[in-house]
Amino acid sequence: MSGLTTTAPAIELTGATKRFRTPSGTLHTAVRDLDLTVAPGEFVAVVGPTGCGKSTTLTLVSGLEEPTEGEVKVHGEHVEGINSQVGFVFQQDAVFPWRTVLSNVMAGPRFRGVPVAEARERARDWLSRVGLAAFEDRYPHQLSGGMRKRVALAQTFVNDPKILLMDEPFSALDVQTRALMSDQLLELWAGTGSSVVFVTHDLDEAIALADRVVVMTAGPATVKQIFTVDLPRPRTVEAVRLEPRFVELYREIWASLGEEVRITRERGAGNAA
Amino acid sequence: MPLETPVAAPAAAPVVTRTAARERAARNRKFTVYGARAGVLVAFLGLWELSARSGVIDPFNFSQPSRIWAQIWQWITHGTAQGSLGEQIGYTLYEALTGWVIGVTCGVLLGIALGRIRFLADVFGPYIKVLNAIPRIVLAPIFLIWFGLGPASKVASAVVLVFFPVFFNAFQGAREVDRNLIANARILGADNRKLTLQVVIPAATTWIFTSLHVSFGFALIGAIVGEYIGATKGLGLLVAAAQGTFNAAGVYAAMTILAVVALFTEGLLTFAEKRLFRWKPADSGDGR
Ligand SMILES: Nc1ncnc2c1ncn2[C@@H]1O[C@H](COP(=O)(O)OP(=O)(O)OP(=O)(O)O)[C@@H](O)[C@H]1O
Ligand SMILES: [Mg+2]
Could you give the angle at which helices B139-147 and B151-175 cross, rounded to 10 degrees? Predict the structure, then answer.
């Protein structure tokens, strides 16, 4: 059993396709024939033009949505419903507005049957790690957008997920906090050995954080190209940025991504006309 | 710190006075509004009293404030024909409150259940729409036949009036919970029961509470109409009895008492709502 889990990839998508029924009744393909494998403990960043299907790919892995065709496996097992090993930081605000900050972070452990006292202790620990210890009694509407995002991070991390899906988690943060959070994420991740799929529009962030950067095509999304980031770890965001290899990778990935972005934009202009 | 103080000091002084000025202006405005409100009331009552005394309007039909007050005072001091005034108010409130609690409980439970369980919604949806289409106040005489002159028939009228608005709001609320919140709760480990209790119901409370305000008014209407048609106690009976003896002042007096009771319960609800919705931004909840 343990042999199987160590050899099986953490995430395996084979020929995954997802179609949505649009209000007009036609089918819209969001993800098409997608193959992607993430090894245990690996950090994969996903970049692609807006609306291409990155968020949809994550919902397939999380079990929130089922693929229309193809297979999704987590730790070698078919995804059926929600896997308790998976954590998901959503692109949109998803903290519970009627709960205080502390109660929001306690939600996961409480849902999973952890006793109140222990849940509170773990939640407080995570709140202090994301720098919100002083705000535990506030309600989400009393926080800034970036603070709410940090609550969401704590809310996810407190469950110790083996697989971490992050959908543009830092896009609402200012540049300094973002760099800080990125470094902190790397630190946390190094300790846990969990696998991360990190969707972002920020190439700097993608290269600084990831082992591999996956470039998606214009929608419907499929993998266009995968770049291996051969920069030594441990990394810090500011230091790694200055390395020549980083700049080289940035240029390569940008060229690959830029093409897809252009296609998407032309398509959008065409639709509007 | 020593660097900051000299910079902050000159800036802070005008800010403080400006804040104070703004506060004073707000307070003045408040007084003006309250004053104007009282003025309108006094003018209205005064005009009514004067026209009744001078014979512009017929006091027999339209009564006059002094007579209404005398009637209320008489009820307070000497009781009404069917018992003390407090007893009448108590009866009506008891009927309205019982009907309201039953109607709200059923409405919320069924609304959430149908909002969460697609199958139930598909099966019961059309029936509820049909029932809702009936003008429910006409059921009051039927309830009188079924349940007799006692409180039960009034409670039943109140229940049918309260149930539907609460049901529809709870249903809508359960349907329209933010999909992201549901997805997040499921990922965090909530099973269906916890999802309903800890995500759907809190998210739907705004919707439900909107209907609670309106529906308590409906409960009072149900109780009063029921009493008006046939009862042994209650404010509705007071109206009916006054009307039967052509006592216009009695009708108005009973109406006044009803309005006071309704306003008071409304105030209680608003207070409860404020306590319950501390998590909401203040301005939107303050509207009404
Ligand atoms: N529930 C849904 N029903 C219908 N269409 C959907 C649904 N969810 C997503 N889509 C469509 O699928 C496509 C991909 O959406 P997705 O959210 O995965 O994009 P994305 O790559 O995450 O974009 P962004 O970078 O802007 O977040 C879009 O065209 C979107 O309109
Ligand atoms: Mg997205």
Answer: 130
Please tell me the predicted confidence (pLDDT) of residue B274: 82
Q: Are B207 and B175 in contact (CB under 8 A)?
A: no
DSSP three-state, residue A190: helix
B250 and B111 share a domain? yes
Give SS3 for A192.
Answer: helix
Task: Provide the 3-class DSSP secondary structure of residue A30.
Answer: strand
Do residue B118 and residue B260 come from a single domain? Answer: yes
What pLDDT, on a 0 to 100 scale, did the predictor assign at position B64?
Answer: 87
pLDDT digits (tens, 9 = 90+) for B155-196: 999 999 999 999 999 998 898 899 999 999 999 999 999 999
Q: How many domains does chain B have?
A: 2
- In this structure, the residue with its CA closest to atom 31 of ligand 1 is A51
Which chain A residue shows the shortest CA-CA distance from B203?
A98
Identify the pLDDT of residue A92: 87
Binding pocket residue ranges, ligand 1, CB within 6 Å? A 20, 22, 28, 30, 48, 50-56, 91, 219
pLDDT in tens, A8-24: 899 999 999 999 998 88
Is B1 inside any structural domain?
A: no
How does residue B287 score in pLDDT terms, banded at 50, 70 and 90? very low
Question: Which among A227, A233, A230 is positioned nearest to A251, based on CA atoms?
Answer: A227
pLDDT at B231: 85
Q: Which of A102-111, B101-110, B227-236 bottoms out in mean pLDDT, i.e. has the lowest?
A: B227-236
CATH of the domain at B225: 1.10.3720.10
Q: Which residues have a beta carbon within 5 Å of ligand 2, which is an ion?
A: A 55, 91
Domains and CATH numbers, chain A: 1-85+162-261 (3.40.50.300), 92-160 (no CATH)
Per residue in A144-184, pLDDT (tens digit) is 888 898 899 899 999 999 999 999 988 877 888 788 888 88
Which of A46, A54, A60, A93 has most ligand 1 atoms within 8 Å of its beta carbon, as the pocket-test mutant?
A: A54
Q: Which of B244, B234, B242 is nearest to B150 (CA)?
A: B234
Q: What per-residue confidence (pLDDT) applies to B282?
A: 66
The two tokens of residue A20 are 């949505």
